Amino acid sequence: MSMQNRRKIIAGFILKSFLKWTALVLAGLVMLLSITPYLIPLQEGGWDRYALTYSNSEFVKAGNVEIHYREWGHEYAHENGAGKNVLLVHGLGGSTFSWRYTAPALAAEGYRVIAVDLPGFGASERKTGFEHSAENRASYLWEMLEKLYPGESWHLAGHSMGGAAVAAMALQEPHKTDAIILAAGAISPFEPSLINVLLKYPPLTRWARVLAGTFIPQESRIETLLESAYGREPSPEEVYGYLRPLRVEGTDGTFADLLRSTPTPLADRLDQVEKPALCLWGENDEWVSLEEGRKLDGLLPDSELVVIPGEGHCPMETAPEKFNQKLLAFLNRR
Question: By the 8 A CB rule, do 204 and 198 touch?
Answer without folding.
Answer: yes
